[in-house]
């Protein structure tokens, strides 16, 4: 495991599912971890208490990333409470699907605000504090590389925007020793997309391994990229999707 002792990480949307697994994994590697939530305060406190019970340090931050100041303020609060920021994990996002004709302008704005704008603004704020060895890691989607059917136009649009954003960050921040990467999950067993859900069999059929992954699979990839082993990886995407895009 990469040693993250002395590092500080911010994980957006860290109260449950993939975000909670990432927060715990980074803490296990030695990082102090701040995690954001919108309404699930009890779940966020539960993740923080587990980290602290295991000997780590954690902070929870209420942040509405649909608001223009939400992402940057989460970064600044992390610095105030934990002293610095070395690792930013942009995990918060929406799982959206439905016919193109039914996507409203309001839904489009809400999804892009969280999945794209908040990532940009969080990276902008974090970059002001990061030094050599900084990491900006965004959680994308297997829809970046393959859209297997209808009803995923909004999801594919939002998550694909992270590719250009991440390449731009890599070029601009690389001279300062800061990397920018994406982890693209495939079907992952969470409360948002359970392995026994109504579309689960179809999703399994699209993977080479024929099964769902677990949140810990994504957390392991993030921890790898966040630590010393990821120091020469930037501007690219790591697919952790069971062969979804093969």
Automatic annotation (TrEMBL):
The keyword Oxidoreductase applies. Residues 7-191 form the Ketoreductase domain. InterPro entries: KR_dom, NAD(P)-bd_dom_sf, SDR_fam. The keyword NADP does not apply. Pfam families: adh_short_C2. One of its GO terms (molecular function) is oxidoreductase activity. Gene3D superfamilies: NAD(P)-binding Rossmann-like Domain. Belongs to the short-chain dehydrogenases/reductases (SDR) family. This is 3-oxoacyl-ACP reductase FabG. It comes from Solihabitans fulvus.
């Amino acid at each position: 495991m990469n040693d993250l002792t002395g590092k500080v990480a911010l994980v957006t949307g860290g109260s449950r599912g993939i975000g909670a697994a990432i927060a715990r994994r980074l803490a296990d590697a030695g990082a102090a971890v701040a995690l954001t939530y919108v309404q699930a305060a009890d779940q966020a406190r539960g993740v923080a208490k587990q980290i602290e019970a295991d000997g780590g340090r954690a902070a929870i931050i209420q942040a509405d990333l649909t608001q223009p100041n939400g992402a940057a303020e989460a970064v600044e609060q992390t610095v105030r409470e934990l002293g610095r920021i070395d690792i930013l994990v942009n995990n918060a996002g929406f799982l959206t699907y439905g016919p193109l004709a039914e996507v409203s302008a309001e839904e489009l704005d809400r999804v892009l605000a969280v999945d794209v704008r908040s990532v940009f603004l969080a990276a902008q704020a974090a970059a002001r504090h990061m030094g050599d060895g900084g990491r900006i890691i965004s959680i994308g989607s297997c829809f970046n590389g393959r859209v297997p059917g209808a009803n995923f136009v909004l999801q594919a649009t939002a998550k694909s925007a992270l590719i250009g954003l991440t390449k731009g960050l890599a070029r601009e921040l690389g001279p300062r020793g800061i990397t920018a990467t994406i982890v693209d999950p495939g079907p992952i067993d969470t409360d948002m997309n359970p392995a026994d859900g109504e579309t689960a069999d179809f999703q399994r059929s699209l993977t080479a391994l024929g099964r769902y992954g677990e949140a810990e699979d994504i957390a392991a990839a993030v921890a790898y990229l966040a630590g010393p082993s990821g120091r020469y990886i930037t501007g690219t995407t790591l697919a952790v999707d069971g062969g979804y895009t093969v």
